[in-house]
Sequence to fold (81 residues):
Amino acid sequence: MKKLSSGTVHKLPADFQKALLASASVRTLWEDITPLARSEWICWVTSGAKAETRGIRITKAVSKMKGGMRRPCCFAGCPHR
Fold:
């Protein structure tokens, strides 16, 4: 399996990476955005308290990136910077 780039402070989790790799357009966008933007996506996906929430966020993230969104919307940003 190809390995995608991680963020500045967050490593890309395997479940999120698998979802990103499923779409060529999302893979391209992921590698084009900044490491800070990647960290924000990872932080947003992993900050959900329940596994169910994380799954929903992974699906939404992929959908939003397919539409060209480069950062998570309505997210204050990664507090771990």
Remarks:
- The chain has a mean pLDDT of 91.
- The chain has four helices and no strands.
- Residues 14-66 form one domain.
